[in-house]
UniProtKB/TrEMBL annotation:
This is alpha-1,2-Mannosidase. The keyword Membrane applies. SUPFAM superfamilies: Seven-hairpin glycosidases. It comes from the Eukaryota. Its cofactor is Ca(2+); Mg(2+); Mn(2+).
Amino acid sequence: MIHAWNSYEKYAWGHDELQPQSKKGIDSFGGLGATLIDALDTLYIMGLDEQFQRAREWVANSLDFNKDYDASVFETTIRVVGGLLSTYDLSGDKVFLEKARDIADRLLPAWNTPSGIPYNTINLVHGNAHNPGWTGGDSILADSGTEQLEFIALSHRTGDPKYQQKVENVIAVLNKTFPDDGLLPIYISPDRGTGSYSTITFGAMGDSFYEYLLKVWIQGNKTSAVRNYREMWEKSMKGLLSLVRKTTPSSFTYLCEKNGDSLSDKMDELACFAPGMLALGSSGYGPDDSQKIFTLAEELAWTCYNFYQSTPTKLAGENYFFHPGEDMSVGTSWNILRPETVESLFYLWRLTGNRTYREWGWNIFQAFEKNSHIETGYVGLKDVNTGVKDDMMQSFFLAETLKYLYLLFSPSSVISLDEWVFNTEAHPLKIVTRHDGEHIGQSKNSQTSRTAARNLIFYEEAEHNVGCAAGSSSLYANGEMSCFDPFKAFPGMVGATRFFSGRTLGGKMGPVVASSLFIPIHEELPGNCLTGPGKRPARLHGNFLAILQFIS
C-alpha cells in the first residue's frame, strides 16, 4: 500500500488515477481525486497517519465537485460518497461528511424519473441526467440498485431523509414486479420501472444489485424493519442456484449467465464476489439451507482461485468460458487488479478461520507483486498469458484489493463484521439498528404523539434566539423557556440543524430529531406545544428547528 500510495502522491496527486508507466495522472472520473478518496479509509485502517493527514488536507482545501462533467452516478456513489462516508465513520471528522453531502446533492436529480429508477449519468454542475446512448435509453441494474448503503448511511449521519427516500423507492419499485426467482435483467426502464429483455448475470452490470439486497439487511442490523431486503435476496439466491453448473473433468462449480431461455457457460471474475456474499448471508437461513449455501460459497471460491492458478502469470483474466470436457479457458485475457476473489477469501477466512484462504490470498498477492509491481506503482496486465503490462493503477486497487488483502491477515477485531458492512468498493460503513414503524434512525421508543408531547424538548438554532446569549439556545419544555448550550447538554447532537425553515407548528410538523441519532421524521404535534412565556404563537420565522426526545 505504501508503494502504491507514494507513487500516486508523487506522480498523480489530486487526479483520479495514476498511469504508472507514463508517470502521470489521468482524470477518469472528472477530476474528483478518485484514488485519493478511495484510499482514505485504507490509509486510516492501516495506521498510515501521515499519508492520511495529507489526504485529509487535500479533501478539506482542494476537493471541488463543481465540475462541468457527466459523471456516472454509480461510480461516483460507490467511490466518492462511499469513501467519504466510510472515512467519516472511522475518524469522526465532519469535513468528510460535508463533502459526502455536497456530492450526493449533485447526484440526487438523477432519481427524478417517471418511475424513480435513476438515470445513470448526471452533470455535476447543471444536474442534467440521462442514460448512456449504448443502453438504448435504459438504466443499468447494478448502476441503479447499488446506491442504497451509501445514501441510507448519509441520511442517518446528516438527519436528512431525502437520500434514503430516493434509493429505497428504487427497491420498492423493483419489488412490485420482482420475479419468483429474484433474477432481473441488466437493463431497467426508467420510465416503466420494469426490466427490458436482456442478459441476467451475477457479473458485469448485474452483480452489486444482489450484493446490496443482502447488505442493506446487514446495515440495518438484520431487524424486521429491513426484512424485505433479506426476502428479496433469498429469492435471488433461488435464482442463483438455477444458474449453478459444474465442469468436467474437475467439477469446478461456476455460475452461468442467462439470455432469454438459454444459458451461457461464461463467468466473469466480477462474479467472484458471490462466494463472499453467499458466505456472509448463509447464517440467515435455517441449519440445512445455511450449510448448503455455505458449501456453494466454498466451491465457487475454489473456482475463482483457479481462475488465477490456471494462467502462466497466476493472475486471473476478466472472464472465463466452460466447455464440455474442458474445465475453464480464459475469454477476455486482461487483468486490471480486480479485488473480487480476495474479497471472498477475506469473508471465508473471517467466517471459518480456515488458513487455506489466507494461503490462497498470499499466492494472489505474490502474483501481483511479481507481475504488476513496477518502480512507479502497480499496473494491470493486457494479457495474463503473456504478462504484457498496461499503464493504469485502478483506484479500486487501493480501495479494495489491498484493503481486503490487509484485512485477510489482520485480527477479526479490525473492522469487525459485527459492527461494519462493506460497500461494493470495500468502504466500511457502521451498522445501525433499524426498528419497525420508525423513520430514518428514529429510536425504538421515540414515537411522537399528542400524549407524549410533554416529554419533548425543542431547540432553536442560536442565531435566531430571542433573549439568549450567543452560543446558547432557547429551550421550550412543557411551556417554559430557558437558555442552554445544546451541544454541551447533548454531546451526541451532531448535524442536528438545517432541517427546515419556518412553518406553523399547529398542523403537520417538519423534521423531528429523535434520541441520539437526530433523524427527521414527520409527526403531528399539538398546536400549543411550542409556546414560550406569555403563550406566544407557535410560529417560527425563518429559523431552524430540531426536536429531541428528552433522555433523563
